[in-house]
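Researcher: I'm preparing a figure for a lab meeting and need a structural model of a single chain. I don't have an experimental structure, so a prediction will have to do for now. The sequence is pasted below. Please return the structure as tokens so I can convert it later.
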Amino acid sequence: MEEGAWVRELKAAITVCDREGVTLEMNDRAAQTHEKDGGRELIGRSLVECHPEPARSHLLELLRTGQPNVYTIEKAGVKKLIYQAPWFQGGEYKGFVELSLPIPFDLPHFVRE
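Model: Understood. Here is the structure written out token by token.
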């Protein structure tokens, strides 16, 4: 398998940015999700500029602190889990990855021991 091939067509949006919020990579679903805003043309552009307040300030704080951010949203009848977490290279904080995963409205929850 070609390295990274599985990421391109995964049915979840994956966007990667650097510490300043500049988009470095996005998979096919992320490009499709953000098509109205430019899709893959967003690579090399700042995510910060795409967010209105108060989301902009929150994003800047996440980029500054490197703390993860996890929440759910509903948009156009689809519920999604948004998982934003720092990524590292050689132990050095390099930026953020956002995973946007479609999830069922009645998501089962299991406690395993």
